[in-house]
Amino acid sequence: MYVDIKEFETILKVGEHIAVEFKAAKGGPKDDMYETVCSFLNRFGGDIFLGVADNGEVVGIPDGAVESTIKNVIKVTNNRELLNPTFYVYPEAFKYKGRNVVRIHVPQSSDVHRYKGVCYDRVFESDVTVQSTDQIAEMYIRKCDVFTERKLFPGIKTEHLRMDLMPTIRNLIYSKFGTHPWLKLDDAQLLRESGLYEEDFTTGKSAFNAAAVLLLGRDEVIFSCFPSYKTDAILRRVNVNRYDDRETVMCNLVEAYDRLMAFGAKHLPDKFHLEDAVRVSLRDKILREAIGNSLVHREYSSSRPARFVIESDRIVADNASKALKCGAITLENLSPVSKNPIIARFFKQMGRADELGSGTRNLYHYTRLYSNADPVLEEGDTFIATIPLNDDYSTDGNGNTNAIGPRDEAINEAINEAINEAIKNKPGINKPKLMKLLGKSRATVERAIAALISLGKIEHRGSKKTGGYYAVCEG
After folding, report:
1. Which of 134, 201, 416, 435 has the fewest CB atoms within 10 Å, measured from its CB?
2. Backbone phi, then psi, for 90, in 5-degree steps?
3. What's residue 206's pLDDT?
4. Please, are residues 222 and 251 in contact by the beta-carbon 8 Å criterion?
């Protein structure tokens, strides 16, 4: 494979990352180089450059050592006692400013490899040891080309599915589209048309697939087919070590969406906002994207449960994923790939998902309006979405979706008065209890307390740890 010098110079400037590793290789390749070969095979592949120091300085390989270095690499990677399974790589020598460099291009492998009996994975620019069964299982999941949702379950019959949800599904489709081809079909035809009932052309047999079980399965059926499936919805504001509220969702995806949306609506404020003179719920827009993504694009064969956590300053949603790349997802590098196309299509017909990629753009758009900040999306074996929360920001309410500013004085005054009344009714109450009582963030409560103290309406008595706030008697 020809090495482009300009491309190589760019690589030197960028430095090491998940797909590039530098090795000075003084005295020849060492174990750490082969550990990188193993981790690249197990992840997304990459390039190793021998004769380059960690800081990107080209130190070179002596002229007499180039051939032996290449032979050593070929010998080790084809020795089953060292690298198992073996994998043939093609080292290539080239010169840069008169110094020898050997490039080893390592493609992604369809197998899970071990070097000297140890499994390695690539995380950012490091090679990490993989020991747990769950982590190794995730490697196999990542390398599997077959969508988990298409696994057939010949033993599943219509009585194992929540067919009583079909009228609800039809109503959702009608609300979204008005007229839709699926609405003209009976239940059996709709299940086939939506891809939930498939034929395996290798065996000639037809059966319901995993997508059908997940979307419509009865609770006990889902547990039997996917025993690790669940979503933990957690509120963690006051008791940050445990939780203030929690709901474990283990039902079919149609109802799971509703339950998670209700949990989010219960614990998040719905800020006022207009779009084209019509009020929209920023909270619901954000929840729709975060929850929909977690349910639609999750890797359901993983033993890792999903989480939806609401904290005082952020929402964190994470779920197992079959990652095709690793790192941050931004609007600039967005290249979406559907992890479960059948489930995604079903959700789209119900109006709970959009075209691939639109959800990420919507999440950015509405989070900026809701919190004056961008979400942080990280792809890997676990997909993590972090959505910032800021009680002190909302839209201007005039339909200008680009304008974000502090809440007006009337809203601030209402919050201050609510906190003032709470202190009058509960003398000695502290900040955590005020946050829990009013459902406000620490920043909002602290700002209101400061304002009330400056106005002479309240005061703090006692120590910082055990003290609380009291109303100041007038007159």
Report:
1. 201
2. -120, 85
3. 92
4. yes
Question: Beta 314-320 vs 306-311: how paired, if at all?
Answer: antiparallel
What residues pair up with 48 in beta bridges, in sequence order?
21, 104
pLDDT in tens, 157-208: 999 999 999 999 999 999 988 889 999 999 999 999 999 998 877 778 899 9
From the CB of residue 323, how many other CB atoms can be counted at a distance below 10 Å? Answer: 21
Per cent of the chain over pLDDT 70 is: 93
- Cα distance between residue 461 and residue 470, in whole Å: 7
Say what the alpha-carbon torsion angle 130, 134, 140, 143 is, to the nearest 10 degrees: -80
- Residue 229 pLDDT exceeds 90: yes
Which tens digits make up the pLDDT trace of 219-228? Answer: 999 999 999 9
Q: Quickly list H helices, 133-247.
A: 133-143, 166-177, 187-193, 210-216, 219-225
CATH topology of domain 409-471: Arc Repressor Mutant, subunit A (1.10.10)
Is the domain spanning 5-131 CATH 3.30.950.30? The answer is yes
CATH architecture label of 231-340+352-404: 2-Layer Sandwich (3.30)
pTM higher than the cut 0.85: no
Q: Is 266:284 a contact under the CB 8 Å cutoff?
A: no
Within 10 Å of residue 181's Cβ, how many Cβ atoms? Answer: 11
Q: Where are the alpha helices (DSSP H) in 66-144?
A: 66-77, 133-143
Model confidence band, residue 289 (pLDDT cutoffs 50, 70, 90) = very high
Q: CA-to-CA distance for 86 and 65, rounded, in angstroms?
A: 24
